[in-house]
């Protein structure tokens, strides 16, 4: 699936550049990709997965973002949805999740998005560890970039979940979404 890999590269390179060159490193602990949806309260999400653990993780990820963030409301529908929440089985890559934004992470407005859980890796995760990946990818879909520390938007599952125990949005992550919307 070379197209997906190209899109991954765009997102990862951009996220790294934000980390390297972002100038807003004061009190806030979030970084923004640069694009946004016209609003996130009416976004429709279509969950379509092969591995049942992926389905549960997307549900959990959506539930906690909705529960914790006053800006966010969602409905799951595969009719006219803007966001596809999927999974894949890629043994040759190290990523456990990725998000792609259409037309690009820096574009306004976003018109579509897709995110993947790679169950080649996540099938060995606990349910909360998979939810940590799903919630992280949803953060990208809302417009958040990578951030260091014990936040949901930490890029590394080994840090975010294994070291920090974070599997849903922290106050810093929620502040980022509040700032955008
Ligand atoms: Zn990420």
Describe the structure.
This protein has 181 residues and is an alpha/beta fold. The protein has one domain: Collagenase (Catalytic Domain). 41% of the residues lie in helices and 17% in strands. It has six helices and seven strands. The protein has helices at 2-21, 52-68, 119-122, 127-142, 157-163, 171-180, and strands at residues 31-32, 44-48, 75-76, 83-88, 97-102, 112-118, 144-145. It has a five-stranded mixed beta sheet with strand order 3-2-4-6-5. Strands 1-7 form a two-stranded antiparallel ribbon. Helix 2 packs across helix 4 (127-142). The radius of gyration is 15 Å and the shape is globular. It starts with a helix and ends with a helix. Residues 1-10 and 12-26 have low confidence and may be disordered. It binds zinc ion (ZN). Zinc ion is lined by residues 136, 140, 146, 155.
Architecture per CATH nomenclature, i.e. the level-2 architecture: 3-Layer(aba) Sandwich
CATH homology superfamily name: Collagenase (Catalytic Domain)
Number of strands: 7
Q: What characterizes the major β-sheet?
A: 5 strands, mixed
Instruction: Figure out the total of helices.
Output: 6
Order of helices and strands: HEEHEEEEHHEHH
Shape estimate: globular
Structural class: alpha/beta
- Runs with pLDDT <50, length 5+? 1-10, 12-26
- The residue-averaged pLDDT reads 87
The level of helicity is 40-55%
Rg, alpha carbons: 15 Å
* Assembly level: single chain
Strand percent estimate? 15-25%
Bound ions, cofactors and other small molecules, one mention each: zinc ion
- Largest beta sheet: what is the strand line-up? 3-2-4-6-5
Total domain modules: 1
């Amino acid at each position: 699936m070379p197209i997906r890999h190209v899109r991954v590269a765009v997102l990862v390179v951009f996220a790294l550049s934000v980390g390297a060159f972002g100038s807003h490193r004061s009190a806030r602990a979030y970084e923004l990709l640069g694009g946004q949806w016209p609003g996130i309260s009416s976004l429709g999400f279509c969950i379509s997965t092969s591995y049942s653990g992926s389905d549960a993780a997307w549900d959990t990820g959506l539930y906690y973002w909705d529960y914790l963030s006053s800006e966010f409301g969602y409905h799951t529908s595969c009719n006219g949805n803007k966001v596809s929440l999927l999974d894949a089985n890629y043994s040759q890559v190290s990523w456990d999740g990725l998000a792609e934004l259409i037309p690009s992470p820096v574009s306004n407005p976003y018109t579509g998005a897709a995110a993947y859980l790679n169950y080649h890796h996540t099938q060995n995760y606990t349910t909360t560890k998979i939810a940590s990946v799903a919630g992280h990818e949803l953060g990208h879909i809302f417009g958040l970039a990578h951030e260091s520390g014990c936040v949901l938007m930490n890029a590394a599952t080994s840090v975010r979940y294994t070291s920090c125990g974070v599997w849903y949005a922290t106050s810093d992550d929620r502040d980022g979404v509040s700032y955008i919307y």
